[in-house]
Design goal:
Elements: E1 9-18, E2 21-31, E3 36-40, H1 47-55, E4 62-67, E5 70-71, H2 77-82, E6 85-88, H3 100-112, H4 126-138, H5 154-167, E7 172-176, H6 184-197, E8 202-206, H7 210-216, E9 219-224, E10 227-232, H8 234-239, H9 241-246
Helix pairs in contact: 3-4, 3-5, 4-5
Length: about 250
């Protein structure tokens, strides 16, 4: 019997409190290399708070965050990014006055630690321009590389933020509701893009669209009130009586 590979991301007994409110309650989960692990649950379950503890935007009160076996609790957001974490937010965070390719270039320069060149045009550095354009092409934005980010549609902004994640050469993508606010066509395109990423990156996906989750995920974990109440394959989660009562019964799958 072959040994299981070391988890790419491992969360061990995370606890996060805000006063008397416990928003993460002894939570443990892992993401394997190349795995798409989805995290679902009702509003207020603590999903985005958990993602923020992985990226370093919040510090857990107890427990460990480990990336490739390294405990990273003490590392800053930029340090974690340089170790391979990339996050996409519920509301895309872009440089609105910069073009699509310049946004991708900023991410690439941040990864390389070349902050002193931050505002140089991508065209000044051929390798940088090629890497940035490649990231845009991967998400289908290669033909609008010179469009200003503020002029992009909501769906295009979502794709651009993903491209910025690719430009940072991540090991793990943290995606916080990438389908939120998208129309049917853009949602379908995003689902197909996420499907194409499986196996290439580890992905921790927070998403309310359970139909999309069940079609994409290798594993699904269900968070309610800061606690994981179930974790398993999509079929196992669909059949779990506790999950159906606590979450899917709200009108999910």
């Amino acid at each position: 019997m072959s040994a299981q590979p070391e988890p790419l991301l491992e969360l061990r007994g995370l606890v996060k409190r805000f006063g008397a409110l416990v928003v993460t309650d002894g939570l443990s989960l892992s993401v394997a290399p190349g795995e798409l692990h989805a995290l679902i649950g009702p509003n207020g379950a603590g999903k985005s708070c958990l993602i923020a503890q992985v990226t370093g935007e919040l510090t857990p009160d107890e427990g460990e965050v480990r990336l490739r076996g390294e405990r990273i609790n003490a590392l800053s957001v930029p340090q974690r990014a340089r170790r391979g974490l990339a996050r996409a937010y519920q509301v895309p965070r872009l440089f609105g006055s910069l073009s699509a390719i310049e946004n991708a270039s900023v991410a690439e320069m941040a990864r390389a630690g070349s902050g002193s060149r931050l505002w140089h045009a991508a065209s000044d550095d051929r390798d940088l321009a090629i890497a940035s354009l490649s990231a845009l092409q991967r998400v289908g934005l290669g033909d609008i590389d010179n469009r200003v980010a503020a002029q992009l549609s909501h769906g295009e902004k979502r794709l651009l933020e993903l491209a910025m994640g690719f430009a940072a050469d991540p090991a793990l993508l943290l995606l916080d509701e990438p389908l939120a606010g998208l129309g049917l066509a853009d949602s379908a395109a995003m689902v197909e893009l996420l499907r194409s990423l499986k196996g290439r990156y580890g992905i921790l996906l927070v998403e309310h669209d359970v139909e999309a989750v069940f079609s994409l995920a290798d594993r699904v974990s269900v968070l309610v009130g800061g606690r994981l109440i179930a974790s398993g394959t999509p079929d196992e989660i669909k059949a779990d009586a506790n999950v159906r009562s606590a979450y899917l019964g709200e009108g999910g799958a």
